[in-house]
Amino acid sequence: MPRERALAWCLHHFIPDWRSMVIHECSPAERGISVRMMKEAPGYIGSHYYSDVPRGQKNGPYQSENLEQLTFEDNSIDIHCHLDVLEHVNDPGACFTEMMRTLKPGGFIIFTTPVYETKATTERRAWIREDGVEHLFEPEYHGNPIDNEGAAVTFHFGNDLSSLILNWAPGASVRQVRLNDASIGVLGEFRDVFVVQKPDPNPPGIVTRVRNWLR
């Protein structure tokens, strides 16, 4: 899919040594860049939100995790990755707090989510309550790799998403990449990729960066 190819391009472009890193991917699909990361990165951890599996435990090849309450230790992950997940969470601010907590200094969050170019500000579409989903507009669901009923859409993100991320992740840098390139199969709508980096007070030197890239 175009957004998946766009994320793959950004991963190679901004984090060329990703294969040597600890990668956590939330809600991976069994195709494309998800499969490639799983095969080529020994430190890959895939997770899904399993309602019936305790957090941190395995369910087959995947781990049970809630992006709003991760079980990973502080400063333990190099890359958090997810494709079209953020529009289904209840509290995106909590997700970024947790991802930043668990990222190593200099680590990355790389993800896609639909951005509605005609919306200046983000709109909440639903609340996830203990007794079910409270829809504020016409119910909207997207595909869910572990649930045939799909995942409820809780947000339509607008052009303010980069600014919101800076509020949720103070001190981070945010790149919003919108590719439009037929040569790599990235055309159409909803192709934005966000590359968020946690600050590193002691960044690696050029020799280390080159060695990691060559590796």
Describe this structure in words.
The protein has an eight-stranded mixed sheet with strand order 3-4-2-1-5-6-14-13, sandwiched between helices. A two-stranded antiparallel sheet has the order 7-12. It has a two-stranded antiparallel sheet with strand order 8-9. The longest helix has 13 residues, at 2-14. It has five helices and 14 strands. With 215 residues, the protein is α/β, with parallel strands linked by helices. The model has no long low-confidence stretch (mean pLDDT 92). It has helices at residues 2-14, 32-40, 92-102, 161-168, 206-214, and strands spanning 22-26, 43-48, 58-59, 62-64, 77-83, 103-112, 123-124, 126-129, 132-135, 141-144, 147-152, 155-156, 173-178, 192-197. The two termini are 28 Å apart.
Describe this protein with a few key phrases.
215 residues; 8-stranded mixed β-sheet; two-stranded antiparallel ribbon; 5 helices; 31% strand
Number of helices: 5
Which range does the strand content fall in? Answer: 25-35%
Helix and strand run: HEHEEEEHEEEEEEEHEEH
Query: What about the largest sheet?
Result: 8 strands, mixed
User: What is the rounded distance between the termini?
Assistant: 28 Å
Spans where pLDDT lies below 50 across 5 or more residues: none
Mean pLDDT: 92
Spatial extent as radius of gyration:
17 Å
Strand count: 14
Overall 3D shape: globular
Structural class: alpha/beta
Helix content: 10-25%
Strand arrangement within the widest β-sheet reads 3-4-2-1-5-6-14-13
Which helices and strands occur, and which strands form pairs?
Elements: H1 2-14, E1 22-26, H2 32-40, E2 43-48, E3 58-59, E4 62-64, E5 77-83, H3 92-102, E6 103-112, E7 123-124, E8 126-129, E9 132-135, E10 141-144, E11 147-152, E12 155-156, H4 161-168, E13 173-178, E14 192-197, H5 206-214
Parallel strand pairs: 1-2, 1-5, 2-4, 5-6
Antiparallel strand pairs: 3-4, 6-14, 7-12, 8-9, 10-11, 13-14
